[in-house]
Design goal:
Length: 350
């Protein structure tokens, strides 16, 4: 088969590799029908995650059809069309029993880290993939759910919802600010509406992305390149700040933006993956009773979100802006890597 193989920092190649084989009785083999590219894949290619070994097949998002099942797999069969969760779950360790699949303790890949696709084991940017713990880690796709809808449920929608909206404790009537209008930020914008906030403010430096944020449910937009950006945000509240500030970029400046606009007793939910430390002025924040959360998605809401997507309550297909064939995956990377020029949000590779 062919797959996108990591060759070290800055090196990737779409090339022939051996087909995956069943290794454990709980495994399945899936023929990929669609995959996509995540910002995390770009971090790997930059060398930000040195634990990823050269020769690793990249990718942790995808949908496809089962071609082979392990001897212990009883609830899945050959021919089933499934979504691969970006986080694998053994289903029986203490963390999995709590629904914290992000910290699955099974020794496959890396004990304590549920994200193993394209990181510790071969991933989904391939023609075929081996899926461990299949019955706990894939979801059957209902009729009528398209590739463009299904692919967003592997990672982006659950991440924005769980780490942004749920961790941020969004509730009816809240004013929510989402800093960063990339894919994860827009997922937070879209799913925040499920809890009935009074306002959802999208904050970004790119006016084109802010225009797009309104399509995903933002009621207001603010360009934080403006000199009075903070005053604009405060004017949309009672003057004390937002109830929930969701950081969806992963740089110190956007985390600081959250701290500047959150109200006393409010929540800062950090979703972005940071490559370096941020400043936490705890000497000034402690008196404001601010709650700060962060984390790796567990995808324990994937099945619920899938129901909403299947019922057309969440227009997930809006995220897909570009489509490519598998053999054109290198072009897909170019489009995604230069999103500011191509206006790419999510690329569908199928």
């Amino acid at each position: 088969m062919k797959a996108l193989v990591y060759g070290g920092p800055g090196i990737k190649e779409w090339k022939e590799v051996p087909d995956p084989q069943i290794q454990q009785p709980t495994d399945i083999i899936v023929k990929m029908e669609a995959t996509t590219i995540c910002g995390t894949d770009l971090h790997i290619l930059k060398g930000d995650t040195p634990e990823v070994e050269p020769g690793r097949i990249l990718g942790h998002e995808g949908i496809g059809r089962i071609t082979e099942v392990g001897s212990n797999v009883t609830n899945l069969k050959v021919g089933d069309r499934v979504i691969l969760s970006c986080v694998s779950s053994c289903g029986h360790c203490s963390y999995c029993r709590e629904g914290m699949y992000a910290h699955c303790m099974d020794p496959e890949g890396l004990p304590g880290v549920g994200w193993i696709f394209g990181y510790m084991i071969d991933g989904a940017q391939a023609e075929y993939v081996r899926v461990p713990f299949a019955e706990n880690s894939v979801y059957k796709i209902p009729e009528g759910v398209s590739d463009a809808e299904g692919i967003l449920l592997s990672d982006i929608l659950p991440t924005g919802f769980e780490i942004g909206v749920q961790n941020g404790k969004v509730k009816p009537g809240d004013v929510v600010a989402v800093i960063g209008s990339g894919p994860v930020g827009l997922a937070a914008v879209m799913t925040a509406r499920l809890y009935g906030p009074a306002k959802v403010i999208a904050i970004d430096l790119d006016d084109k992305r802010l225009d797009r944020a309104r399509d995903f449910g933002a009621t207001h937009t603010v360009n934080n390149g403006s000199a009075d950006w903070k005053e604009q945000v405060m004017a949309l509240t009672d003057g004390l700040g937002v109830d929930v500030a969701i950081e969806a970029v992963g740089v110190p400046a956007t985390f600081d933006t959250c701290l500047q606009i959150v109200r006393p007793g409010g929540h800062v939910a950090n979703v972005g993956v940071h490559g370096k430390p941020v400043n936490l002025p705890i000497d000034k924040l402690w008196i404001a009773n601010i709650n700060i959360s962060m984390g790796l998605v567990s995808t324990n809401t994937l099945e619920m979100l899938l129901k909403l997507v299947a019922a057309k309550k969440l227009p997930a297909d809006k995220f897909v802006t570009h489509e490519f064939a598998f053999e054109d995956i290198m072009e897909a990377y170019e489009a995604f890597m230069h999103a500011s020029d191509t206006n790419a949000l999510k690329v569908l590779i199928h």
